[in-house]
Design a protein that fits this description.
By secondary structure, the protein is of the alpha/beta class. It has helices spanning about 65-75, 80-95, 110-125, 145-155, 175-185, 200, 205-210, 230-240, 245-250, 260-265, 285-300, 305-315, 315-320, 355-360, 390-405, and strands spanning about 10-15, 20-25, 40-45, 45-50, 95-105, 125-130, 160-165, 190-195, 220-225, 245, 270, 340, 370-375, 375-380, 385. The chain is about 35% helix and about 20% strand.
Length: about 400
Protein backbone atom coordinates (compact mmCIF):
# COMPACT_ATOMS: atom_id res chain seq x y z
CA UNK A 1 0.00 0.00 0.00
CA UNK A 2 3.02 2.34 -0.08
CA UNK A 3 2.28 3.46 -3.62
CA UNK A 4 -1.43 2.67 -3.62
CA UNK A 5 -3.49 -0.48 -3.93
CA UNK A 6 -1.77 -3.87 -4.02
CA UNK A 7 -3.62 -7.14 -4.54
CA UNK A 8 -4.02 -9.16 -1.33
CA UNK A 9 -1.11 -11.30 -0.21
CA UNK A 10 -0.72 -13.53 2.80
CA UNK A 11 1.58 -11.53 5.07
CA UNK A 12 2.56 -11.22 8.69
CA UNK A 13 2.97 -7.83 10.34
CA UNK A 14 5.16 -7.16 13.36
CA UNK A 15 4.09 -4.27 15.58
CA UNK A 16 6.51 -2.68 18.03
CA UNK A 17 5.05 0.14 20.10
CA UNK A 18 3.07 2.41 17.80
CA UNK A 19 4.94 1.52 14.59
CA UNK A 20 5.07 -1.28 12.04
CA UNK A 21 8.44 -2.96 12.56
CA UNK A 22 8.30 -5.49 9.73
CA UNK A 23 6.06 -6.94 7.01
CA UNK A 24 6.88 -10.26 5.35
CA UNK A 25 5.29 -13.57 4.32
CA UNK A 26 6.68 -15.10 7.51
CA UNK A 27 8.20 -13.42 10.55
CA UNK A 28 9.93 -14.68 13.68
CA UNK A 29 9.55 -12.64 16.86
CA UNK A 30 10.36 -14.38 20.14
CA UNK A 31 7.75 -13.73 22.81
CA UNK A 32 5.46 -11.67 20.59
CA UNK A 33 1.70 -11.84 21.09
CA UNK A 34 0.09 -13.44 18.03
CA UNK A 35 -3.20 -12.07 16.70
CA UNK A 36 -4.68 -14.41 14.10
CA UNK A 37 -6.61 -12.48 11.44
CA UNK A 38 -6.60 -15.28 8.88
CA UNK A 39 -9.33 -15.00 6.28
CA UNK A 40 -9.72 -11.23 6.74
CA UNK A 41 -8.51 -8.42 4.49
CA UNK A 42 -6.00 -6.29 6.37
CA UNK A 43 -5.83 -2.72 5.13
CA UNK A 44 -4.59 0.64 6.36
CA UNK A 45 -7.00 2.43 8.65
CA UNK A 46 -9.42 4.69 6.80
CA UNK A 47 -8.73 8.44 6.63
CA UNK A 48 -11.71 10.75 7.13
CA UNK A 49 -10.74 13.96 5.36
CA UNK A 50 -13.58 16.12 6.71
CA UNK A 51 -15.71 15.58 9.81
CA UNK A 52 -17.87 17.88 11.96
CA UNK A 53 -17.25 15.93 15.15
CA UNK A 54 -18.80 18.58 17.42
CA UNK A 55 -22.34 17.85 16.18
CA UNK A 56 -22.37 14.04 16.50
CA UNK A 57 -24.82 14.04 19.42
CA UNK A 58 -27.46 15.81 17.28
CA UNK A 59 -29.87 13.21 15.93
CA UNK A 60 -33.48 13.06 14.86
CA UNK A 61 -33.89 16.81 14.36
CA UNK A 62 -36.18 16.42 11.34
CA UNK A 63 -36.43 18.53 8.20
CA UNK A 64 -35.50 21.77 10.00
CA UNK A 65 -32.22 20.35 11.29
CA UNK A 66 -30.08 23.17 9.86
CA UNK A 67 -32.15 25.86 11.57
CA UNK A 68 -32.28 23.86 14.80
CA UNK A 69 -28.51 23.38 14.81
CA UNK A 70 -27.99 27.12 14.26
CA UNK A 71 -30.05 27.76 17.39
CA UNK A 72 -28.50 24.94 19.42
CA UNK A 73 -24.99 26.14 18.55
CA UNK A 74 -25.56 29.28 20.61
CA UNK A 75 -26.32 27.28 23.77
CA UNK A 76 -23.75 24.56 23.11
CA UNK A 77 -21.52 23.86 26.09
CA UNK A 78 -17.93 22.62 26.30
CA UNK A 79 -19.34 19.45 27.87
CA UNK A 80 -21.54 18.93 24.80
CA UNK A 81 -18.51 19.43 22.54
CA UNK A 82 -16.48 16.87 24.46
CA UNK A 83 -19.27 14.29 24.44
CA UNK A 84 -19.91 14.83 20.73
CA UNK A 85 -16.27 14.28 19.84
CA UNK A 86 -16.15 11.20 22.08
CA UNK A 87 -19.21 9.78 20.31
CA UNK A 88 -17.92 10.74 16.85
CA UNK A 89 -14.61 9.05 17.60
CA UNK A 90 -16.32 5.83 18.71
CA UNK A 91 -18.45 5.80 15.56
CA UNK A 92 -15.33 6.44 13.48
CA UNK A 93 -13.41 3.55 15.03
CA UNK A 94 -16.41 1.26 14.54
CA UNK A 95 -16.28 2.10 10.82
CA UNK A 96 -12.54 1.44 10.54
CA UNK A 97 -11.49 5.10 10.57
CA UNK A 98 -8.17 5.66 12.33
CA UNK A 99 -7.40 9.29 11.35
CA UNK A 100 -9.94 12.15 11.32
CA UNK A 101 -9.69 15.72 10.03
CA UNK A 102 -11.96 17.31 12.66
CA UNK A 103 -13.53 20.49 11.29
CA UNK A 104 -14.57 22.33 14.46
CA UNK A 105 -17.02 24.95 13.22
CA UNK A 106 -18.51 25.78 16.62
CA UNK A 107 -15.61 27.04 18.70
CA UNK A 108 -17.61 29.39 20.89
CA UNK A 109 -14.78 29.82 23.39
CA UNK A 110 -11.29 28.53 24.19
CA UNK A 111 -12.99 26.11 26.58
CA UNK A 112 -14.96 24.59 23.70
CA UNK A 113 -11.74 24.13 21.75
CA UNK A 114 -9.99 22.53 24.72
CA UNK A 115 -12.93 20.16 25.19
CA UNK A 116 -12.73 18.92 21.60
CA UNK A 117 -8.96 18.52 21.66
CA UNK A 118 -9.08 16.67 24.97
CA UNK A 119 -11.74 14.27 23.70
CA UNK A 120 -9.79 13.61 20.51
CA UNK A 121 -6.63 12.82 22.46
CA UNK A 122 -8.48 10.62 24.95
CA UNK A 123 -10.08 8.63 22.11
CA UNK A 124 -6.76 7.37 20.79
CA UNK A 125 -7.65 8.40 17.24
CA UNK A 126 -5.10 10.09 15.08
CA UNK A 127 -6.18 13.27 13.37
CA UNK A 128 -6.17 17.03 13.22
CA UNK A 129 -8.17 19.53 15.23
CA UNK A 130 -9.08 22.40 12.91
CA UNK A 131 -9.62 25.41 15.15
CA UNK A 132 -12.79 27.06 13.93
CA UNK A 133 -15.32 29.76 14.61
CA UNK A 134 -18.67 30.12 16.40
CA UNK A 135 -21.29 28.38 14.25
CA UNK A 136 -23.56 31.42 14.51
CA UNK A 137 -20.79 34.00 14.10
CA UNK A 138 -20.78 37.05 11.83
CA UNK A 139 -19.52 36.60 8.26
CA UNK A 140 -17.84 40.01 8.09
CA UNK A 141 -15.86 39.77 11.32
CA UNK A 142 -12.47 38.00 11.29
CA UNK A 143 -11.94 35.00 13.55
CA UNK A 144 -9.96 35.66 16.72
CA UNK A 145 -6.86 33.89 15.52
CA UNK A 146 -4.64 35.84 17.92
CA UNK A 147 -5.84 33.39 20.57
CA UNK A 148 -4.48 30.62 18.34
CA UNK A 149 -0.93 31.96 18.67
CA UNK A 150 -0.68 30.73 22.25
CA UNK A 151 -2.23 27.40 21.24
CA UNK A 152 0.45 26.90 18.58
CA UNK A 153 3.29 27.68 20.96
CA UNK A 154 2.04 25.29 23.66
CA UNK A 155 0.65 22.52 21.43
CA UNK A 156 1.49 19.00 22.58
CA UNK A 157 2.74 17.27 19.44
CA UNK A 158 1.44 13.74 19.08
CA UNK A 159 -1.29 11.84 17.23
CA UNK A 160 -3.51 14.95 17.08
CA UNK A 161 -2.27 17.83 14.95
CA UNK A 162 -3.53 21.39 14.52
CA UNK A 163 -5.12 23.27 11.63
CA UNK A 164 -7.67 26.03 11.03
CA UNK A 165 -11.29 25.74 9.88
CA UNK A 166 -12.37 28.87 8.00
CA UNK A 167 -15.79 29.99 6.79
CA UNK A 168 -14.34 30.30 3.31
CA UNK A 169 -15.11 32.65 0.42
CA UNK A 170 -18.79 31.68 0.15
CA UNK A 171 -19.47 32.74 3.74
CA UNK A 172 -17.09 35.59 4.50
CA UNK A 173 -15.82 38.74 2.83
CA UNK A 174 -12.63 38.66 0.71
CA UNK A 175 -10.88 40.95 3.18
CA UNK A 176 -11.73 38.71 6.12
CA UNK A 177 -10.65 35.57 4.28
CA UNK A 178 -7.35 37.12 3.18
CA UNK A 179 -6.57 38.13 6.76
CA UNK A 180 -7.47 34.72 8.16
CA UNK A 181 -5.44 32.74 5.61
CA UNK A 182 -2.44 35.04 6.10
CA UNK A 183 -2.53 34.56 9.87
CA UNK A 184 -2.91 30.80 9.60
CA UNK A 185 0.03 30.65 7.18
CA UNK A 186 2.03 32.77 9.59
CA UNK A 187 1.49 30.10 12.21
CA UNK A 188 2.44 27.37 9.72
CA UNK A 189 -1.01 25.78 9.86
CA UNK A 190 -3.09 24.27 7.03
CA UNK A 191 -6.58 25.67 6.49
CA UNK A 192 -9.82 24.09 5.31
CA UNK A 193 -13.21 25.46 4.24
CA UNK A 194 -16.42 24.66 2.39
CA UNK A 195 -16.83 26.06 -1.11
CA UNK A 196 -19.03 25.86 -4.20
CA UNK A 197 -21.56 23.43 -2.78
CA UNK A 198 -24.51 25.10 -4.48
CA UNK A 199 -24.95 26.51 -7.96
CA UNK A 200 -25.37 29.98 -6.50
CA UNK A 201 -22.09 29.68 -4.62
CA UNK A 202 -20.29 28.40 -7.71
CA UNK A 203 -21.53 31.38 -9.71
CA UNK A 204 -19.64 33.70 -7.36
CA UNK A 205 -16.43 32.46 -9.05
CA UNK A 206 -14.57 32.59 -5.75
CA UNK A 207 -12.00 30.06 -6.95
CA UNK A 208 -10.88 32.48 -9.64
CA UNK A 209 -10.64 35.36 -7.17
CA UNK A 210 -8.69 33.32 -4.64
CA UNK A 211 -6.33 32.08 -7.33
CA UNK A 212 -5.59 35.60 -8.49
CA UNK A 213 -4.96 36.75 -4.91
CA UNK A 214 -2.60 33.89 -4.04
CA UNK A 215 -4.97 32.34 -1.52
CA UNK A 216 -4.79 28.78 -2.85
CA UNK A 217 -2.11 26.14 -2.38
CA UNK A 218 -1.35 22.74 -0.90
CA UNK A 219 -2.04 24.14 2.58
CA UNK A 220 -5.56 25.25 1.56
CA UNK A 221 -7.97 22.31 1.60
CA UNK A 222 -11.30 22.82 -0.16
CA UNK A 223 -14.43 20.81 0.64
CA UNK A 224 -17.38 20.06 -1.70
CA UNK A 225 -17.20 22.24 -4.89
CA UNK A 226 -19.86 19.93 -6.32
CA UNK A 227 -21.18 22.72 -8.54
CA UNK A 228 -17.87 24.18 -9.67
CA UNK A 229 -17.23 24.54 -13.42
CA UNK A 230 -14.26 22.81 -15.03
CA UNK A 231 -12.16 25.99 -15.09
CA UNK A 232 -12.46 26.33 -11.30
CA UNK A 233 -11.41 22.73 -10.78
CA UNK A 234 -8.43 23.33 -13.06
CA UNK A 235 -7.39 26.38 -11.02
CA UNK A 236 -7.56 24.39 -7.79
CA UNK A 237 -5.44 21.63 -9.31
CA UNK A 238 -2.90 24.08 -10.73
CA UNK A 239 -2.51 25.71 -7.32
CA UNK A 240 -2.17 22.34 -5.59
CA UNK A 241 -5.21 22.84 -3.37
CA UNK A 242 -6.62 19.41 -2.46
CA UNK A 243 -10.32 18.62 -2.71
CA UNK A 244 -12.33 16.62 -0.18
CA UNK A 245 -15.77 15.34 -1.14
CA UNK A 246 -18.34 14.25 1.45
CA UNK A 247 -21.17 12.71 -0.59
CA UNK A 248 -23.47 11.74 2.29
CA UNK A 249 -23.52 15.32 3.55
CA UNK A 250 -23.68 16.72 0.02
CA UNK A 251 -26.78 14.63 -0.65
CA UNK A 252 -28.39 15.71 2.62
CA UNK A 253 -27.71 19.38 1.84
CA UNK A 254 -28.95 19.08 -1.77
CA UNK A 255 -25.54 20.07 -3.10
CA UNK A 256 -25.74 17.35 -5.71
CA UNK A 257 -23.35 14.49 -6.35
CA UNK A 258 -19.68 15.33 -6.94
CA UNK A 259 -18.60 15.27 -10.58
CA UNK A 260 -15.86 12.71 -10.05
CA UNK A 261 -15.07 12.57 -13.76
CA UNK A 262 -14.38 16.31 -14.00
CA UNK A 263 -12.43 16.28 -10.74
CA UNK A 264 -10.19 13.46 -11.96
CA UNK A 265 -9.72 15.08 -15.35
CA UNK A 266 -8.61 18.28 -13.63
CA UNK A 267 -5.88 16.32 -11.85
CA UNK A 268 -6.95 17.24 -8.33
CA UNK A 269 -5.42 15.69 -5.23
CA UNK A 270 -8.49 14.12 -3.65
CA UNK A 271 -9.75 12.65 -0.42
CA UNK A 272 -13.14 11.73 0.99
CA UNK A 273 -14.90 12.49 4.26
CA UNK A 274 -17.92 11.65 6.37
CA UNK A 275 -18.92 15.29 6.90
CA UNK A 276 -21.62 14.90 9.54
CA UNK A 277 -22.80 11.69 11.16
CA UNK A 278 -26.40 12.62 10.29
CA UNK A 279 -29.68 11.50 11.83
CA UNK A 280 -28.75 7.84 11.54
CA UNK A 281 -25.67 8.41 13.68
CA UNK A 282 -22.97 6.67 11.67
CA UNK A 283 -19.49 7.67 10.57
CA UNK A 284 -19.76 5.30 7.64
CA UNK A 285 -16.83 5.61 5.26
CA UNK A 286 -18.01 2.56 3.34
CA UNK A 287 -21.19 4.38 2.31
CA UNK A 288 -18.99 7.37 1.41
CA UNK A 289 -16.83 5.17 -0.85
CA UNK A 290 -19.88 3.56 -2.45
CA UNK A 291 -21.46 6.94 -3.21
CA UNK A 292 -18.21 8.22 -4.70
CA UNK A 293 -17.99 5.12 -6.91
CA UNK A 294 -21.62 5.55 -7.99
CA UNK A 295 -21.07 9.25 -8.70
CA UNK A 296 -18.16 8.26 -10.92
CA UNK A 297 -20.43 5.79 -12.73
CA UNK A 298 -22.84 8.64 -13.46
CA UNK A 299 -20.26 10.93 -15.03
CA UNK A 300 -17.67 8.50 -16.39
CA UNK A 301 -19.66 5.40 -17.27
CA UNK A 302 -20.16 2.10 -15.45
CA UNK A 303 -17.04 1.06 -13.54
CA UNK A 304 -14.87 3.56 -15.40
CA UNK A 305 -13.14 4.10 -12.08
CA UNK A 306 -11.95 1.05 -10.19
CA UNK A 307 -12.47 0.35 -6.52
CA UNK A 308 -8.73 0.58 -5.89
CA UNK A 309 -8.75 4.28 -6.79
CA UNK A 310 -11.71 5.02 -4.53
CA UNK A 311 -10.13 3.07 -1.68
CA UNK A 312 -6.90 5.00 -2.22
CA UNK A 313 -8.81 8.27 -1.72
CA UNK A 314 -10.06 6.86 1.59
CA UNK A 315 -6.55 5.92 2.72
CA UNK A 316 -3.15 6.83 1.25
CA UNK A 317 -4.12 9.53 -1.28
CA UNK A 318 -6.63 11.07 1.11
CA UNK A 319 -3.96 11.31 3.79
CA UNK A 320 -1.58 13.01 1.37
CA UNK A 321 -4.31 15.43 0.29
CA UNK A 322 -4.89 16.72 3.83
CA UNK A 323 -1.18 16.65 4.71
CA UNK A 324 -1.55 13.97 7.37
CA UNK A 325 1.71 12.75 8.96
CA UNK A 326 3.99 10.51 6.92
CA UNK A 327 2.77 6.95 6.59
CA UNK A 328 -0.87 7.59 7.50
CA UNK A 329 -3.15 5.60 5.20
CA UNK A 330 -0.48 3.03 4.29
CA UNK A 331 0.90 -0.26 5.59
CA UNK A 332 4.68 0.14 5.41
CA UNK A 333 7.66 -0.74 7.55
CA UNK A 334 8.31 2.12 9.92
CA UNK A 335 4.84 3.56 9.40
CA UNK A 336 2.15 4.04 12.05
CA UNK A 337 0.52 0.88 13.37
CA UNK A 338 -2.94 1.95 12.17
CA UNK A 339 -4.65 -0.98 10.50
CA UNK A 340 -8.01 -2.66 10.19
CA UNK A 341 -9.20 -6.15 9.28
CA UNK A 342 -12.35 -6.60 7.21
CA UNK A 343 -14.49 -9.69 6.67
CA UNK A 344 -15.77 -10.11 3.12
CA UNK A 345 -17.95 -13.08 4.04
CA UNK A 346 -21.33 -12.86 2.33
CA UNK A 347 -20.43 -9.78 0.28
CA UNK A 348 -20.12 -11.58 -3.05
CA UNK A 349 -22.55 -14.38 -3.81
CA UNK A 350 -21.01 -14.88 -7.26
CA UNK A 351 -17.47 -15.30 -6.00
CA UNK A 352 -16.26 -13.17 -8.92
CA UNK A 353 -15.88 -9.69 -7.43
CA UNK A 354 -12.32 -8.45 -6.86
CA UNK A 355 -11.47 -7.31 -3.32
CA UNK A 356 -11.39 -3.60 -4.19
CA UNK A 357 -15.01 -3.77 -5.41
CA UNK A 358 -16.08 -5.71 -2.32
CA UNK A 359 -14.55 -3.07 -0.07
CA UNK A 360 -15.84 0.02 -1.86
CA UNK A 361 -19.27 -1.12 -3.05
CA UNK A 362 -20.40 -3.92 -0.73
CA UNK A 363 -18.82 -3.65 2.73
CA UNK A 364 -20.02 -1.68 5.75
CA UNK A 365 -18.97 -0.94 9.35
CA UNK A 366 -20.22 -4.34 10.52
CA UNK A 367 -17.63 -5.98 8.27
CA UNK A 368 -14.84 -4.27 10.22
CA UNK A 369 -13.75 -6.96 12.66
CA UNK A 370 -10.52 -5.49 14.02
CA UNK A 371 -9.09 -1.98 14.44
CA UNK A 372 -5.63 -1.04 15.70
CA UNK A 373 -4.56 2.58 16.17
CA UNK A 374 -1.02 3.41 17.20
CA UNK A 375 -0.46 -0.19 18.20
CA UNK A 376 -3.51 -0.21 20.51
CA UNK A 377 -6.47 -2.51 19.80
CA UNK A 378 -9.72 -0.53 19.57
CA UNK A 379 -11.97 -3.18 18.01
CA UNK A 380 -11.68 -6.96 18.18
CA UNK A 381 -14.05 -9.67 16.98
CA UNK A 382 -16.34 -6.92 15.73
CA UNK A 383 -16.72 -5.24 19.14
CA UNK A 384 -15.28 -1.93 20.36
CA UNK A 385 -12.79 -2.53 23.17
CA UNK A 386 -12.28 0.97 24.62
CA UNK A 387 -15.80 2.44 24.81
CA UNK A 388 -19.41 1.40 25.36
CA UNK A 389 -21.17 2.77 22.27
CA UNK A 390 -24.67 2.11 23.62
CA UNK A 391 -23.91 3.99 26.84
CA UNK A 392 -22.40 6.87 24.87
CA UNK A 393 -25.48 7.03 22.65
CA UNK A 394 -27.76 7.22 25.69
CA UNK A 395 -25.59 9.92 27.24
CA UNK A 396 -25.74 11.86 23.97
CA UNK A 397 -29.55 11.72 23.95
CA UNK A 398 -29.65 13.10 27.50
CA UNK A 399 -27.28 15.91 26.57
CA UNK A 400 -29.39 16.84 23.55
CA UNK A 401 -32.49 17.00 25.76
CA UNK A 402 -30.66 19.40 28.08
CA UNK A 403 -29.61 21.64 25.19
CA UNK A 404 -33.10 21.68 23.70
CA UNK A 405 -34.55 22.60 27.09
CA UNK A 406 -32.26 25.64 27.06
CA UNK A 407 -34.03 26.68 23.87
CA UNK A 408 -37.40 26.26 25.53
CA UNK A 409 -38.02 22.67 24.36
Amino acid sequence: MEGGWTNPLRLEILIEGDRIAAIAPELKAEGAEVIDLSGLLITPGLVDGHSHMWSAIARGLGDDSAETMDALAEVWTPEASALSVELAAALAVNSGITWVNNWADNVVSPEHADAEVGAMRDSGLGGRFNYGYPHAGSHDKPMDLDDLRDTVSTWEHGPVGLGVALRGPDSSTPEVLQEEISKARGYGLPVSFHMGGSQGAAELHNVQAMSEQGMLGADVQVVHVTSAPAEDLARLAEAGSPLIVAPTTEAAMDFGAPDIGAMREAGLNMGVGVGTTGPEGAADMFTVMRLVAEAADETMGEEAINGATVFDWATRAGALAVQAPDGVGTLVKGGPADLIAISTEGLDETGKLPPDIELTRKAGPDNVRFVMIGGEIHKADGELTKVDLDALTNEAAEMMNELQEKLGG
